[in-house]
Write a structure and sequence with these properties.
The protein is mostly helical. The chain is rod-shaped.
């Protein structure tokens, strides 16, 4: 009898979901979230009955569904994951001097001082970007060899 009531409730919910405003994307997100919650609840229920393998599968399903929902929400809010710094390409000596802001006659000490000054501002741990820090590192390596 309980399964009949649960099936009727699920059918009523799906009918309501089809008529709800918000477009297909909103309904899909809501459905994924509810399926994730249902899978987590089922995992608890099955786990209490001693069927651990099925419970672990339902937990995994719940995590996958909720993770996908979070990724979709982040993408809609404009979240862009950080990309790794570009692969190092050989930069010319002139480009390296321009990045560090040193003269062609700069000594090793001047290059190191310029590098330190720029890295204090551009390092990712101090609010800078990984790409800019990589360019500064590459410029120093080009000039000091």
């Amino acid at each position: 009898m309980i399964y009949l009531l649960l099936g009727a409730a699920a059918l009523a919910f799906l009918v309501w979901l089809g008529r709800a405003p918000g477009g297909a994307a909103g309904r899909g997100r809501m459905l994924r979230t509810l399926l994730s919650v249902a899978a987590a609840g089922g995992a608890v229920f099955v786990g209490l009955r001693g069927q651990w393998l099925i419970s672990l599968g339902l937990v995994a399903l719940s995590v996958v569904l909720s993770g996908r929902t979070r990724l979709i929400l982040r993408a809609r809010r404009g979240y862009v994951p950080r990309s790794p710094p570009p692969l190092s390409t050989k930069m010319s000596v002139q480009e390296a001097r321009d990045i560090l802001g040193v003269a062609p006659t700069a000594t090793r000490a001047e290059i190191e001082a310029a590098f330190r000054r720029l890295m204090l501002r551009a390092h990712p741990d101090h609010g800078g970007s990984a790409g800019l820090a990589a360019q500064i590192n590459a410029a120093r390596e080009t000039l000091l060899g």
